[in-house]
Fold:
Amino acid sequence: MAKGAVNKVVLAYSGGLDTSVILKWLEVTYGCEVVAFTADLGQGAELEEARRKARMLGVKEIFVEDLREEFVRDYVFPMFRANALYEGEYLLGTAIARPLIAKRQIEIAHATGADAVAHGATGKGNDQVRFELGYAALDPAIRVIAPWREWDLDSRSALIAFAEAHQIPVPKDKRGEAPFSVDANLLHTSSEGKALEDPDHEPDEYVFSRTRAPEDAPDAPQTVTIAFERGDPVAINGEALSPARLLERLNDFGREHGIGRIDLVENRFVGLKSRGIYETPGGTILLAAHRGIEQITLDKGAAHLKDELMPRYAELIYNGFWFSPEREMLQAAIDHSQRHVTGEVRLKLYKGRVRLVGRRSPFSLYARDLASFEEEGGYDQKDAEGFIRLNALRLKLLAERRKREGQKGT
Structure:
């Protein structure tokens, strides 16, 4: 399709230099109308400034939307039911935000009659894949424009020169190269690139914006009680909270106690390794709490199967396949397992650590009389003899074969 064939495009717009340049570049290059869409996912930025800047740049249709509750309720919480971790550590804070942004972009495109969508992800990262797989799943006919894969603005100075040529204001503090890039939402903050690219260099303290240093955290632990219903947290210390408010409260606890920092060299979907500094204060607490309530409410087989499925589920989210049938199939199984994951968990927060100290549930499978070393409680210890004998049978057969092979070799 020729570049001039685009009539209207919905741009995921942050209000920063990059997406402001993209906005004008789309108008100049494609001769099209641009719709600006800014999602509030709890990143903490002043989003009305994005609206003001888009209006200043001549945009007629501007959408600035508070999606925090939807983000936590329909994306973060379902992911946490799975205890999802990518490569053993990453709580997927950036990856889980992309499908919601893509979904809302497509909805706005349909509502405004746009025939294209655009994003500001670079050609080396995962986000371009996540956005575009989302677009493809939701509207396979939509035109996708990825400026970083098309234009020749390959440096900060080139971006600034373009901005100045088109009367796009560039604040003084944005003229120099940023020491690293930051992505933030209600679940996490990620810092990557430039000053952080050497994996052997410990990040400076100024890199961290969401948590205090664990060594500077309070010298006394804090106990927090989290209530769950069907796998989702619903209250903290007896106070019922909406999904977004609950995560905000956990973030406050995590920030105070220096919880949720990781330094990870991960394998990107596009084939590169990258080093990221992640802060997920509330999510780290929530993961520990959810695993705690599952300890007493999930059957052994279900719990172990969930742990086997989790890496595959996490990889699907990381790679951008939120809207895929396989993710939905896994979600259905995970959600089924959560029917009785209801109860309360107590945790102690102390200098960067979360420690589980108590859990209770009306659906608990923990039978104290059976587990006790002091009482029989209906468990006949003699039954263990036959159980062991049956499980040892194949090991005995293998041992006898090794013995025969050894005799032949002498």
Q: What stands out?
A: DSSP finds twelve helices and 14 strands in the chain. The first strand starts at residue 8 and ends at 12. The mean pLDDT is 94.
